[in-house]
What we know:
The chain has helices at 14-27, 42-60, 73-83, 101-111, 121-128, 130-139, 187-201, 249-253, 258-261, 273-289, 325-333, 337-350; strands at residues 6-11, 63-68, 87-91, 147-150, 165-169, 183-184, 205-209, 214-222, 226-228, 232-235, 264-266, 295-302, 308-314. By secondary structure, the protein is α+β, with helices and mostly antiparallel strands. The strands form three sheets. Strands 8, 9, 10, 11, 12 and 13 form a six-stranded antiparallel sheet that branches. A four-stranded antiparallel sheet has the order 4-7-5-6, with helices on one face. The protein binds adenosine-5'-diphosphate (ADP) and magnesium ion (MG).
Amino acid sequence: MPKKKKIVVVYDEGALDISSEVQMALNGKTEPEGNSSSKDTSMTSVIEQVDTIVEVLTEVGYNVSTLLAGADISKLMEKLREDKPDLIFNFCESIEDNSYQEMNVAGLYELLGLRYTGSGPLTLGSCLNKVRTKEILSFHKLNIAPFRVFNSPDEVLRKKMTFPVIAKPIHEDASAGITNSSVVYDRDHLQSLLSEMLKKFKQPILVEQYIEGREFNVAIVGNEELVALPVSEIDFSTMPQGYHHIVSYEAKWMPDTVEYKSTVPVCPAKISSRFQKKIQNTAIKAYQVMGCRDYARVDMRVDKNGIVHVLEVNPNPDLSPGESGFSRSAAAFGWTYGQLISNIVESAFKRSVGTY
Ligand SMILES: Nc1ncnc2c1ncn2[C@@H]1O[C@H](COP(=O)(O)OP(=O)(O)O)[C@@H](O)[C@H]1O
Ligand SMILES: [Mg+2]
């Protein structure tokens, strides 16, 4: 019998901490709330993903173990050297609350000559920086929302902008720092929002033109041959008056909030097959120009003229079973969760180590 291939799932426990800290900062709190109405599920979903991935890959016939990437990076290195996995399933999105390290961990795998799932350091770093992403996308003629970057609230007086706009911290993801108050309609409100956000997040703030319209995302799997899964739409039709049609932090992670309940993913989206192709092709181009590998999800908004704007590219998207957009899109395509994870793993095995 052939020897089972060894896969190590590497994950970090900081994923939630970053987002909840940012969220707490945004809310001006110093401690997490204990009540269930603000229950934050972003960490549970990391653990849940890891457990399920171990289960499904074991079922497929791999020899699977897990490894926590903590502050002492030499431990991770030693274990990886000892284990010599055939593949790392990379779930490490930060080290000690620092998402900037996501790309460095991938760089470490490269230095160790180890094969791993997902994008390389250059792509991970570029996609984490929303401005860098927009620069690359627009260079390749993809539509993006016009934007400005603010390091001081006073810059509002000097920079031209078309309102409404949406403000977000430049280096975050998972909607960290994005709330219903992030959309503003005039300079005065933008100025006070910026002074609050700059103080809290201690990083430049990206201010984008707010794209009024439908929101879609496309999950993609593969490398040389890409599979764009069915388009998913966020249905905002039940959002009460006074709430913007955006996927805020609450909408993404807090099931008991009105924002969560009023952002309903619909997959496949109810759109013509021509429009579906247009959205998928935009997503594929974004995936390719950002240098994504194995799997990623592209978020888009379509304005009233039918122009598809790429909001961002997520090279390390949520893969949790059932609940995540990715697994929902895979199901709409006819893949079981096990097939989705196997296809990602196979994509990583098929390409050569280190190829862009
Ligand atoms: N320019 C924009 N116009 C309209 N909505 C936006 C815009 N940028 C972001 N959003 C809303 O905010 C959400 C999160 O923004 P995104 O750029 O995808 O960041 P994150 O990495 O935090 O998911 C989007 O899903 C969308 O609902
Ligand atoms: Mg997003």
